[in-house]
Amino acid sequence: RALGLVLAVLSFLSIDYFFQAPFDRFTVGNPLDWFVLVAFVLTAAVAANLLARAQAAAERARNRTEEVAHLSRLGAELLGAGTAENALSAIAVKVRETMNADTCAVFRTVVSENEPGVELVVLCGSGASVSPDQAAVATSRPQADAHSLIIPLRVHDRAVGVLGVRSSATLASDEASRRLFDALTYYAALAVERVTLVAQLEHAEALRESVRVREALLASVSHDLRTPLSTIKVLAQDLVSRQDLATATRNAAVIEEQADRLSGLVTNLLDLTRLRSSAFPVHPDINAAEDMIGAVARQVSGVLGDHPLERRIDRGGPVLLGRFDFVQSQRILVNLVENAVRYSSAGAPITLGVQREDGSLVFTVSNSGPGVAPTERERIFEPFYRSPAAAADVGGVGLGLYIGRALAEAQGGTLTLCRSSTDRTTFELRLPAVDAAQLDEAELLETVHDD
Q1: What per-residue confidence (pLDDT) applies to 97?
Q2: Which candidate, 75, 55, 56, places its Cα nearest to that of 67?
Q3: Alpha-carbon distance 371 to 422, whole Å?
Q4: What 3-state class would DSSP assign to 47?
Q5: Do 412 and 432 contact (CB within 8 A), yes or no?
Q6: Residue 126 · residue 93 · CB < 8 Å
Q7: Cα–Cα distances in Å, from 128 out to 104, 125, 131, 166, 230?
Q8: Are the CB atoms for 87 and 191 separated by under 8 Å?
Q9: Cα angle: 343, vertex 431, 298; to 5 degrees
Q10: Bridge partners for 223 per DSSP
Q11: For helices 84-99 and 175-241, angle between their N-to-C axes, nearest 10 degrees
Q12: Which helix (H) or strand (E) element contains residue 431?
């Protein structure tokens, strides 16, 4: 506009000086020439003003186009974000770029012990950040100056969080930046609400799972405690009334067996509590796989019945050593063998083996039986799960495989169902292997001494 007005005035003077009589003078001989010159100046001024307005409108249109492009890209990023926190992080980055800020912090409102407060969700950038106390104050009263801006995030007139930006320089304050910032804050409010809803959903799922586990625990314990307690009571009464030594001895053995069953049930329940509170002790040490196979075979000898136990140990290479907790690993394998006995057909052999595969010792327990349905391959490792096809008197409360997998993972190993068909089922326990050549003399002597 200024350039157009300057050119109009210069043109007015040039026409008067060079093209209007008298020439070479800034005077006008014919009064009508004044009308022509003034009309020319006014037309040029109007044209310059219209051109300036058109340019300003075009600039605003370009800015709006950039804003829409920014928002569309942000929308695409939010749709592609895997979690609510990732979406909120993308928004925080855009806010920081838009406002020329050093840091951007996003808080969500929480209620703890009936007291409202804020919780940091996302922090983007470096330098001085917004403190939780400042964010708590800003939930009701925004705070702003040249270097910081802390505002509440609202959805449907309800405060869901706080967004704060800080910069060592002056924050961007032009109209376009403010419009984009306002749009981004609404996106941020929606993302914060999504984070809150996800947290509430997870809490509800945890409560639902807790109720399910509690109900399953009550059902399993009530069923599995009733049978051995009834047996113990009947046999104890029989012992009181009988004088036959042979019968009394036989009944005493049954009572001991049922008491051991109760003890195992209580032990599993206690271990479940310890595992869920992350307080289960595991002490990995260097042990020989052959010793483990022998210890398991001795412990399960009383429960095999008519099932022969076949041992398969890979003796083609060096001695098989591993770093694992001997007691807890033995417990896992004993449980697998007992399960194999429960679900095997009469007289069918149980196979207990071990071999070296890369950096792992692979213990396997195989049995012949009905197998596991494909839909249950992972469910059998859930606590208190029992297959619908299992017999009612099969025993156990459905904790053995769950505890076994947890113990294996605590030692850096895995417990999986590797094969299951209509005639054969195989479980694999993988534990970290150790090469004898890599052991120092003290460790090797200790291992040999233990063996």
Answers
A1: 83
A2: 75
A3: 5
A4: helix
A5: yes
A6: no
A7: 10, 9, 9, 7, 70
A8: yes
A9: 50
A10: none
A11: 160
A12: strand 425-434
Place of tokens 């094969």: 419
Q: Whole-angstrom Cα distance, residue 151 to residue 98?
A: 16
User: Which pair of structure tokens corresponds to residue 387?
Assistant: 């297959």
Radius of gyration of the chain (CA): 41
pLDDT digits (tens, 9 = 90+) for 313-328: 887 778 899 999 998 8
Q: How far from 305 is each of 75, 347, 348, 370, CA to CA, in Å?
A: 66, 8, 10, 19
pLDDT in tens, 322-377: 999 998 899 899 989 988 888 888 888 999 999 999 889 999 999 887 778 778 88
The rounded distance, in Å, linking the Cα atoms of 351 and 360 is 19
Distance from first CA to last CA of the chain, Å, rounded?
A: 97
Q: What is the 3-state secondary structure (H, E, C) of 151-210?
A: EEEEECCEEEEEEEEECCCCCCCCHHHHHHHHHHHHHHHHHHHHHHHHHHHHHHHHHHHH
Residue type present at position 374: P
* Triad 416, 418, 419: Cα angle to 5°: 140
pTM of the model: 0.47
Residue 233 tokens, joined: 């009571």
Helix (H) or strand (E) holding 256: helix 245-276
Could you tell me the two tokens for 356?
């070296």
H/E element holding 447?
Answer: helix 441-450
Q: Give me the residue label for tokens 């924050």.
A: 171
From 209, 155, 216, select the one nearest 187 (Cα to Cα): 155
pLDDT value of position 321 = 92
Q: Which of 112, 90, 101 is nearest to 151 (CA)?
A: 101
Q: Which two tokens stand for residue 277?
A: 């509170």
- Rounded distance, CA 350 to CA 339, Å? 10
Please spell the DSSP secondary structure of 226-243, one letter per residue: HHHHHHHHHHHHHHHH--
Q: What pLDDT does 132 receive?
A: 83
Question: Which strands make up the sheet holding 103-112, listed edge to edge?
Answer: 115-125, 103-112, 158-166, 148-155, 143-144
Task: Please give the structure tokens belonging to residue 175.
Answer: 């109209």
CA distances from 109 to 89, 116, 195, 443 (A): 17, 7, 11, 55
Give the bridge partners for 142, in sequence order: none
* Helices and strands, counts by H and E, the chain: 10, 12
Q: Are 66 and 18 in contact (CB under 8 A)?
A: no
189, 151 Cβ separation under 8 angstroms: no
Distances (CA, A) of 244 to 240, 276, 368: 10, 48, 40
